UniProtKB/TrEMBL annotation:
Protein name: tRNA-specific 2-thiouridylase MnmA
Superkingdom per UniProt: Bacteria
Taxonomic lineage of the native organism: Bacteria, Bacillati, Actinomycetota, Actinomycetes, Micrococcales
A Pfam family assignment: tRNA_Me_trans
Source organism: Cellulomonas persica
CDD domains named in the record: MnmA_TRMU-like
Location in the cell: Cytoplasm
């Protein structure tokens, strides 16, 4: 196969490309330039896709003996991922930019361009597994190394794009194994630190980035009774479940910490309350992407499901309360705390991804008198 290997400049994508070459594919490397902001182009970048990373990607391609190109996708990245990030926060929701990058850039723009150029598939360094069924269709599964599993942020891609994707690191036992393999192959990125934080927020200050882009919008922080307990410079800078950085002038009557319960952009208001008020056991979501036709039709099913609402969150046992082509609702068997609109919700059957959708709301069913239940943060 002709394979386009996405080289981020990190160790994972370099080893993935090396494995694709070793498998006998005709591989070409490409680095995606996603920003024209010079502040991001610096030594020790906290995110990915900096000018430093482009150089590391080129050196990896040289070691592997494959052609290498840099594609400027910065305009598309700004129009989709960054614009969505700003719009979601402005609307009082909590987006996951890595999910949107996979949706709009890596498995839309990049893959579509690759197919137009005659490539058969795109190869990336994501930790996830693709399983081919007997009928030729494809399933997305968690990686062997659950600590590095990235199926959560990949689920948005959908089955058609999955069929054109290769994840050579899905069966790797650990990140240490990847680093050892990189060193053995002579790849200089073998000891390069992992990227973290939001790649387009150069200094890691998300609130500062939002303030610079959206402007200061002073407003009130109120408790559930409507009493003003503090002020803020922009409701968009807060997210449901947040505890730190509230700077409230009035303590809670019981002295316990306060958390953000809701962000109300229309009134430019942040509502705070107790941790107990964050607990939910039903989650509703839209913009569904399905890998299971039976689940999408709402057909009854046997067997346990689980859901995940954060990239590094633990899966929680759940049942599909409603499902159609566009929407889904889940009933959680174990309540969660601090589920925010805008988060990605992924449904699993064991290690297999059943579907993905974007959270619109969450609620708690009133507990019978005298009952008690544990929650996960």
């Amino acid at each position: 196969m002709r394979v386009l290997a996405a080289l981020s400049g990190g160790v994972d994508s370099a080893v993935a490309a090396a494995r694709a070459v070793e498998a006998g594919h005709d591989v070409v490397g490409v680095h995606m330039a996603l920003s024209r902001t010079r502040d991001q182009f610096r030594t020790g970048s906290r995110g990915c896709c900096s000018i430093e990373d482009a150089g590391d990607a080129r050196r990896a391609a040289d070691v592997l003996g494959i052609p290498y190109y840099v594609w400027d996708l910065s305009e598309r990245f700004e129009e989709t991922v960054v614009a969505d990030f700003l719009a979601e926060y402005a609307a009082g929701r909590t987006p996951n930019p890595c999910v949107r990058c996979n949706e709009h850039i890596k498995f839309a723009t990049l893959l579509d361009k690759a197919l137009a150029l005659g490539f058969d598939a795109v190869c990336t360094g994501h930790y996830a597994r693709v399983v081919t069924r007997p009928d030729g269709s494809h399933e997305l599964h968690r990686a062997r190394d659950l600590a590095k599993d990235q199926s959560y942020v990949l689920a948005v891609m959908g089955p058609e794009r999955l069929a054109r994707s290769i994840f050579p690191l899905g069966d790797v036992a650990s990140k240490d194994e990847t680093r050892r393999e990189a060193a053995a192959r002579g790849l200089s990125v073998s000891a390069k630190p992992d990227s973290y934080d939001i790649c387009f927020v150069a200094d890691g200050d998300t609130q500062g980035f939002l303030r610079d882009r959206l402007g200061a919008r002073p407003g009130e922080v109120v408790d559930t009774s409507g009493a003003v307990v503090g002020t803020h410079d922009g409701a968009y800078a807060y997210t449901v479940g947040q505890r730190r950085g509230l700077a409230l002038g009035r303590p809670a009557p019981d002295g316990r910490p306060r958390y953000v319960l809701a962000v109300e952009p229309v009134h430019n208001r942040v509502v705070v309350g107790s941790a107990d008020e964050l607990v939910v056991d039903h989650v509703h979501a839209d913009r569904a992407v399905w890998y299971d036709d039976a689940a999408a039709s709402g057909a009854p099913r046997e067997g346990a499901l689980s859901v995940q609402v954060r990239a590094h969150g633990a899966p929680v046992p759940a049942a599909l309360a409603h499902a159609d082509a566009q929407r889904l609702s889940v009933a959680l068997h174990e309540p969660l705390r601090g589920v925010a609109a805008g988060q990605s919700l992924v449904v699993y059957d064991g290690t297999r991804v059943v579907g993905q959708a974007t959270v619109t709301s969450a609620e708690r069913t009133p507990a019978p008198a005298g009952s008690a239940a544990g929650t996960r943060a």
